[in-house]
TrEMBL record:
UniProt organism field: Bradyrhizobium hipponense
Protein name per UniProt: DUF5666 domain-containing protein
KW Signal (keyword) present: yes
Organism domain of life: Bacteria
Keywords: Signal
Annotated signal peptide: 1-27
Amino acid sequence: MSVQRATFTRPLIAVAMVAVSTLYAFAQRAPVPTRVRGTIETVDSDTMQVKSRSGEDVKLRIAPDIRVSGIAKTSLADIKPGSFIGATTVPGPGGGENAVEVHVFPESMRGTGEGSRPYDLKPNSSMTNATVADSVVGNDGHTLLVKYKDGEKKVFVADNTPVVTFVPGDKSDLKTGAKVIAFVKPLPDGSLEADRVSVGRDGLTPPM
């Protein structure tokens, strides 16, 4: 190898090594959460500390325009054909879907997130937001046929499945002891900001 070629090659090798090291560092970083589920431990004007369900302490900045909604219990009997619902499901026997939880959207939120997609509540879980086309009452629950713009699903909802609905909320609901789901985004400095929070009412843990 000539001196000129070696001189040219060494910088390329160095650049390649730096690129590989950078990619490795990115691969080792923990994924940034999009939701933090847990209990508020402390809160002030612009931050809150949340103890996550898995035990981590997570500090969240509170967005100036944060949106807060309450989560309250409702009844499976209140779900009727025409209701717009969200259901977290896991695969059941025979190709069906078993509901882990169901949340009923008020009419003002009809169409929110319509469709079905993977969800992070449980392994192999999915979230489906759709309109109830039919409800069949069985001995131990309801089987719901739900339809959305790209398809449909049959969802079995057992009698003991948590069923909740959304109610109005505001920033005053963010207080110590509240059970929350915070929807977060990373900021340029590496911190996390909550721009939307669902808060359980009367000690309720939001099940979704």
